[in-house]
Fold these 2 entries.
Entry 1:
Amino acid sequence: MADISFLMLIFFLMVTTMDKEEGLSRRLPPIPTEEQKVEDQKVNRRNIIQVKINSNDRLFAGNELMDVSQLKDKIKEFLTNPNDDPNLPEREMKPIEGFGEYPVSKGVISLQNDRGTTYSKYIEVQNELIRAVNEIRDEFSMINYGKKYAKLDEDRQEIVRKCIPQNISEAEPKDVKKR
Amino acid sequence: MAKFIKSDKGGIPGISTASLPDIVFMILMFFMVSTSMRQTDRKVLVSMPAASEIAKLERKDLASYIYIGQPTMQYQSQYGTDSRIQLNDAFRTIDDIRDFIASERENLSEADRPFMTVSIKADKDTRMGIITDVKQELRRCSALKIMYGARKGGEVHK
């Protein structure tokens, strides 16, 4: 009995692929209809930050050449706008269910890439953007609930998500010219 | 070690192996349950990029996979070394994604369909052009929930 079980055990051990399904979860925007296209352009300029990666994997954020390591802080500053800078996104008081009023940032990160950008760079940049948002969420949860975002219960995570939305738009494909 | 060689009268009885089959069975059951046999042959080389902010896929059964990468050695003479798309177990083109998504969607129950996730597993040296095309095609098929496959790790920028 034990021998047969052992045999099967070894078989399953060999066959098992502990392929962990992990990655960066994203939601693609639906294909815009004609009317929406016009509406899109009305987004205030201060509320949008362009993050571009060109075909040489060089990164531009807000028309400024920068290294990936600087990106996170740039995005954090953009989304939190601590000094009420008129060039950074406005914050709108919004009632959040179960929390009260909170000034939600209207900032949108627009990520654009070239056809020649490598996938690894793209993921690296996406990762930094998500990290920036996650850090702001952590700080928010720390202040309000004394816990990190990941340790909060479902309802509170929902509140935090509403207060600090993750607005990363993967723009319509457009070729970023080499500079 | 001295406390183990304490020479009590009668000595220490040997460990009973009567429970061994039970234990083996338990481990066997664990592996049987957790095994996900790879249904598809990988025909492209995929070495996923690393990322630190990764999330786990909640429902593996709702995922469809799109592999993008260089064909493996044995197919290189036939398909070249340019990045190709693999759906199920054959090389496909962008135009086949629509049918692929439709059939994958068909396989899911009505209730699960909105939660279908397309997992894009692309090699880290792939150019974004092909991935952008795939993304656009997915948008057209309204398969909007996607996941960029990545593995844990990677340098963290301070």
Entry 2:
Amino acid sequence: MRHSQTQVFHRGIAAPLLRPNIDTDAIIPSREIARVSKEGLGEAMFAGWRYLSAQDSARGREPDPEFILNREAYQGTSILLAGDNFGCGSSREHAVWALKDFGIRAILAPSFGGIFFNNCALNGIVAIELEEAMIQRLAEWVQLDPRANLLEIDLAAQQIRWRKGEKTGFAIEPARRGLLLEGLDSIAATLRQEDAIAAFEAADRQRRPWVWM
Amino acid sequence: MNHAGPKPRPRRFEATKMPATLLEKLWNLHQIADLGGRDCLIHIDRIFLHERTGSIALRSLEQEGRKPRAPHRVFCTMDHIVDTRPGRSDISLAPHGREFIEATRQSARRAGIHLFDIDDPRQGISHVVAAENGIVLPGMSAVCPDSHTCTLGALGALAWGIGSTEAEHALATSCLRASRPRAMRINFVGETAPGVTAKDMILHLIASFGSRAGRGHAVEFAGPAVSALSMDGRFTLCNMAVEMGAFTGMIAPDERTIDYVRNTALAPRGPLAERAEAHWRQLRSDAGAIFDLELEIDCARIAPAVTWGTNPEQLASISDTVPAPDTFEDPQKSLAASQALDYMGLKPGTPVNSIKIDAAFLGSCTNNRIGDLRAAANYLRNRKIAPWVRALCVPGSGAVKRQAEAEGLHEIFRNAGFEWREAGCSLCFHAGGESFGGKRVISSTNRNFQGRQGPGARTHLASPLTVAASACRGYISAAEAS
């Protein structure tokens, strides 16, 4: 349950993937989930878009040179600039595990799929909601020179720093920020509330006995 | 999500005299502690797992040296990867499918949870079997690492999909840290035309307000057209709440809900049943309850429809044409439409009912209950599918399959040219085995995402009735047009 702590400060190459409604099937197609494991899924990330053929060939899978993350300038990308409703669809946490394994540390989008948003925080990926116009401005700037125009994300100051001296604030719930920064074991934290849980259960047994099999 | 110690507060569910929404009643019934902000510690009455994501949650829990806190209230089924061809075994067509099945079986046994294994008469899709066995009842809280868990909101339950890590938390603690959603009500006013089904209603709703309109909200479906729906129709409606981005969907229990529940194996009996039913009848939004957002759908405007794109909001009536990307005001939607049409191999202005299909899929947690199969079979009686179409019918559970066979529906499907399968998720998605790769499919499922049903597969979402009619004509068709 404990994920490694997220750094307070991150600077990295950002890649724009601006189409809306990028679903978790696109982030990791179902056929790519081949093991009962959270590990080693980076190769499968965006497999449907990233490779020329969906099937493994003897030579391995050939990258599609057109896909943004395969372009020279975006090698080492650690931040995604995404469209509305990023991570909608299936609850598969493999989508987050694949992004993390690939090296994605933060995703900026106008909105996120709800389950995906929670899965990000539980795995140390910083998901930030920003106005669409702001995402567009960041994308335009980044595209001018992806390897020079790095984004800086400061979780403590709740700021994104970009073009010389430009800063953009963002909102993040304190609980989510705490989870990211401290990487706490939330099961252990909840188990410390055992008295409250047990008291609830005892009362509920009286109130709704049919629930308690 | 807050890790400061929760401070137990006075319980609120019996104290309040203010008119309350169904969501508030369900939430307050399960709130153990207020964690600050919108975050709460919520009691989870039932946990459901399946072999794809449940296997990972169980294994990870074991690796942490933890055990389920209440294994007798945890259920697991095989639905996602299990083969649905007749005479199936542990060997699945999905790569390493057997590994998932065996790992799930072993972990479930070690954890002492209920397992509906491949040969169990209760096996089927988690959301279907949780309802039909009375595992989830009105007023309960239930979670499953599967986004379509919102289906069970049709019972008046608080049910939602989670990730594997949250499933571990629920297993270990019988609780979740959850952010209290906002309350939305969708009022379906007026009457639907003949041939318009629950699937057309939910697709119309998603297309009207967009696939993120429900973000952060629990959506209560209400109005006379919802009351008039069968339970199977209500499950379809709630099933796709997640396709509008909602936390969950829900429908207040009524006499139809209570009749449905009474016939399930795990429903309370005797005096306990009377008490439970009295409780369930209170689970409705009070007159004057305040919602964060209320929207209205005029049922007279709903027609049988199919999706033309790669997101459920990209919808057209079957009597209409494929839209042009430049008709969308929002530049992002216009771009998405153009990319979708490219993937779907469609040109703007094409009449929807001139689109030729290669395959028809009747299945998934959205539309493979007995009512769905009856509707399709009723149309297919004495008809044949077009010679170029491959058609499959996959019941939602073993119980649905047995009921259909008792009614002779399987013979109607077979005579029409459909394959008749064992219960499971099957080709709702492509797990690496069977595939609609490169084909155009009319599908009673919930997601038309790129590659969802196979590499290059082009999915058109539709009702079971539309799937049956389209399979027969070989082109997308509404039932009444044939």
